[in-house]
Amino acid sequence: MNVxxxxxLQDLEREKNISKEILIEAIEAAxxxxxxxxxxxxxxxxxxxxxxxxxxxxxxxKTVVEKxxxxxxxxxxxxxxQIDRRYQLEDIIExxxxxxxxxxxxxxxxxxxxVQRIREAERGMIYEEFSNREGDIVTGIVxxxxxxxxxxxLGRVEALLxxxxxxxxxxxxxxxxIKAYIVEVKKTTKGPQVMISRTHPGLLKRLxxxxxxxxxxxxxxxxxxxxxxxxxxxxxxxxRDENVDPVGACxxxxxxxxxxxxxxxxxxxxxxxxxxxxxxxFVANALSPAKVISVDIIEExxxxxxxxxxxxxxxxxxxxxQNARLAAKLTGWKIDIKSESQAKTLQILPATYEGQGExxxxxxxxxxxxxxxxxxQDNYDETYDENYDYEESYEDLxxxxxxxxxxxQYDENDVHSEDYTVEDDQKS
Length: 428
Description:
CATH topology of the largest domain: N Utilization Substance Protein A, Chain:P, domain 4
Number of domains: 3
Structural class: alpha+beta
Shape: elongated
Helix content: 25-40%
Largest sheet: 5 strands, mixed, barrel
CATH architecture of the largest domain: 2-Layer Sandwich
Strand order of the largest sheet: 5-6-7-9-8
CATH class of the largest domain: Alpha Beta
Number of helices: 15
Radius of gyration: 35 Å
């Protein structure tokens, strides 16, 4: 019996992925319960199972006291000294009391307790596994839908995708494989409950980590992300290696890397911009694809006052304010956008960041990928032109004419001098 018993424990260990020691402890607890139930004992007992032979024994435990009140739980110091002179008050003495037919009775009584303990051990292991994966991405299969809640099979446990965590307009079909972000793991009476999300900005970060090797190995760092799930997102990236273009690494050859993420997010548009430690430059980058004339940082109010050309105002604000809203979330600054004519009317002078000439050197590095955009013209370098913008909404000729006019207006108002640079402005 003992050999078969140990073999059965080993089989359970392999099948349930539960430690053999946990199973033995559960069986010991079950045997204690069985002993007390079948033999009507109120004693303090301990059951020990030999890990090598599989033999088990029952011990009653008594505390050494000066004078006994209950012989089932206590033993006098005088009696204890007769057993061993080294015993002192409050010591515990064990007496073996294994019944002859205890094995058969215990097997019948302890079965349910053992099964329950195994279930609890399984739930505990699942909880530990997924609680350590909070903030990670998982892949699951859609199982069913109940009251707008989507249940996703993650293998060992079912995860809950609540309505508030579902992307707007996204439908889920039975058997469909989806990726989701683990938001929280709760302990419940029915076992661990895993809460997942398809709208969390963390999902976007984890997807880029999966698709972009440079982010995974730490060469490129994803500094910030803002997202309106199902519509548009912005991420800010930074390269620790000056020879690696962070935006190009995220876009991938012919947009393959970002295309895979857009497909997973059901066509959600993604803006990839460069992060900069200078708040003014970072705000200007975050408003891509709009061009910025100047950014004035007001530290006390945590406000960035941005001036853009008149024809870029609607692009900077975005549909229903979406572009400006995402840029504010991305940078952590409140953004106040004014057109050039409004700035002149209010006599707001450009400060902190001066655009146009120097602006073009880096703002066009920002690449905006949209699913379904038309292919660029024949003269566009297929390898990846850093000065190409899919969302440019004005003709080159009109831009050139506007810049000529803008430069004349700036000279007349003495706003910029020929030697004006960003560094001079920061010193002032």
